Automatic annotation (TrEMBL):
Organism: Xenoophorus captivus
Pfam families: V-set (PF07686)
Descriptive protein name: Immunoglobulin V-set domain-containing protein
Cited InterPro entries: CD7, Ig-like_dom_sf, Ig-like_fold, Ig_V-set
Positions of the Immunoglobulin V-set domain: 15-94
Superkingdom to which the source organism belongs: Eukaryota
Alphabetized SUPFAM superfamilies for the sequence: Immunoglobulin
PANTHER family registered for this protein in UniProt: CD7, CD7 ANTIGEN-LIKE
Length: 136
């Protein structure tokens, strides 16, 4: 992965915008998009087919809003009512059809590392920095 990593801090109850963008490659048009947690609790947050509503993981039900369409190479995902347990690294994977072969997953150009603070001050900033060091 050679894109950028966004490091985002939020308090519990707030929301976060996770950008999913893919560099257009020739005539490849994505037909779907996965958003996954990929570090602390690897799991699928949702899958969205072009023009359809996303199918959302139970733990994110009613907290995920998707705007944009995978076929346009850009989707914005908002996760609301954040919980401390949502802290993780989030990656987008665009699904692209390969004729005569297995569909290809192309990772989005940005990863989002989300740190949700439970709102109990004082929060140690050095902790978040050490957390960031461990994922590099």
């Amino acid at each position: 992965f050679c894109g950028e990593v966004l490091f985002v801090e939020r308090l519990e109850g707030q929301s976060v915008l996770v950008p999913c963008h893919m560099e257009p490659k020739g005539s490849l048009r994505p037909f779907g998009l996965y958003l996954r947690r990929s570090w602390l609790r690897p799991t699928e947050v949702f899958f969205k087919y072009t023009q359809n509503d996303p199918s959302v993981n139970e733990s994110f039900r009613d907290r995920v809003t998707v705007s944009g369409d995978p076929s346009d190479h850009a989707v914005n995902v908002t996760i609301s009512q954040l919980r401390a347990a949502d802290t993780d690294r989030y990656i987008c994977e665009f699904m692209v059809e390969r004729v005569g072969s297995v569909d290809e997953k192309i990772q989005g150009s940005t990863e989002t590392f989300l740190h949700v603070i439970d709102g109990e001050p004082p929060f140690s900033h050095s902790m978040s920095l050490s957390l960031l060091q461990t994922i590099r």
